[in-house]
């Protein structure tokens, strides 16, 4: 969040206008509230189908900054960076892209026309879940100096240990990203024919609504490590997560260990109760996919057993209607 704040708060002033995604990182609404309090006009729109063009047109030359997140988290929609950057620049606005899901190996926003590329180094860049870090890159030395000055002023400077951990992780970045992207695509393919799975999303799937745009701007077949899908309801999703053996029920993504979560437990994201965000790690692909399919079978079998056990006891003239649920608490990311 420090990297996102560094760009937005170093570039926007009272009276400026900005366009941000409505389906982006979970803490963006809190930052939008802060910007509004500073006198910045903020308009939002979804990532898919380049919908941010509409508020960009409406605000016109008042727009100082267009913020994109592609692929979006957690919905995995994709927008055309080059098209939106050209439209923003024509109105005199800067363009920043949150590149966390794609990584620098999967997508180069600056080469597609963006002025800033921003990402969480906590996720795939470092890949081990042991460092809190963000980063900003840009071509213009003046913009870089403004971000650097904001960072210095608020003290958002990484310590030596964090810098060392990030440097250590870069040595395996390509190995991890390539393995995770390939396995994520395989997993998405294995989920396509599951009857209990709906809303399957992964930009690498040829059938995905975002595939055409993603294939035109994401590099080397690296469409990211995240797969999202929806199970029938909250309880079904929780049973699936409990049945997984190789996968941690945890938030965040991009690490060498696969994680999955029912995203609706945190609130803040406009997703169904059974929505799963699945981050593919570096495990053996066959082992991981087998574990996921087995967990889906277990969750569905348990649902069937529960349905069979519920009903009315007509012999005694009384009936019962019972249900069970689970609760989970934590912090989202």
Automatic annotation (TrEMBL):
User: One Pfam family for this entry, by name?
Assistant: Cys_Met_Meta_PP
User: Does the record carry Iron as a key word?
Assistant: no
Q: Which keywords belong to this entry?
A: Pyridoxal phosphate
The UniProt annotation puts the region (Disordered) at 301-333
Cofactors named for this entry: pyridoxal 5'-phosphate
Gene3D superfamilies per UniProt: Aspartate Aminotransferase, domain 1, Type I PLP-dependent aspartate aminotransferase-like (Major domain)
Q: Does the keyword Disulfide bond apply?
A: no
**Family, similarity comment:** Belongs to the trans-sulfuration enzymes family.
NCBIfam families per the UniProt record, alphabetical: PRK07582.1
Q: What is this protein called?
A: Cystathionine gamma-lyase
The upper taxonomy is:
Bacteria, Bacillati, Actinomycetota, Actinomycetes, Kitasatosporales
């Amino acid at each position: 969040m420090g990297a996102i704040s560094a760009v937005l708060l170093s570039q926007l002033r009272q009276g400026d206008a900005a366009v941000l995604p409505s389906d982006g990182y979970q803490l963006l609404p809190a930052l939008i509230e802060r910007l509004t309090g500073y006198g910045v006009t903020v308009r939002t729109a979804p990532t898919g189908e380049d919908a941010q063009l509409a508020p960009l047109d409406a605000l016109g030359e008042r727009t100082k900054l267009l913020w994109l997140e592609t692929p979006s988290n957690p919905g995995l929609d994709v927008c055309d960076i080059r098209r939106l950057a050209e439209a923003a620049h024509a109105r005199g606005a800067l363009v920043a892209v949150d590149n966390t899901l794609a990584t620098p190996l999967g997508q180069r926003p600056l080469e597609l026309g963006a002025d800033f590329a921003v990402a969480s180094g906590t996720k795939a860049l470092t890949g081990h879940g042991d460092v809190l870090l963000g980063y900003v890159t840009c071509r213009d030395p003046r913009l870089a100096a403004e971000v650097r000055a904001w960072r210095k002023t608020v003290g958002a400077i990484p310590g030596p240990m964090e810098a060392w951990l990030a440097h250590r992780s870069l040595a395996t970045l390509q190995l991890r990203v390539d393995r995770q992207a390939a396995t994520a695509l395989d997993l998405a393919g294995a989920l396509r024919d599951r009857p209990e799975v709906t809303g399957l999303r992964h930009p690498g799937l040829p059938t995905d609504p975002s595939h055409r745009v993603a294939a035109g701007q994401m590099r080397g077949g690296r469409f990211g490590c995240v797969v999202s899908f929806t199970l029938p309801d909250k309880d079904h999703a929780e049973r699936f997560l409990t049945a997984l053996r190789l996968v941690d029920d945890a938030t965040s993504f991009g690490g060498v260990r696969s994680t999955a979560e029912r995203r609706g437990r945190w609130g803040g994201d406009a997703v169904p109760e059974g929505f799963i965000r699945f981050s593919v790690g570096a495990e053996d692909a066959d082992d991981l996919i087998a574990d996921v399919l087995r967990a889906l079978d277990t969750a569905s079998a348990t649902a069937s057993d529960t349905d069979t056990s519920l009903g009315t006891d007509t012999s005694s003239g009384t009936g019962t209607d019972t249900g069970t649920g689970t609760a989970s608490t934590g912090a989202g990311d």
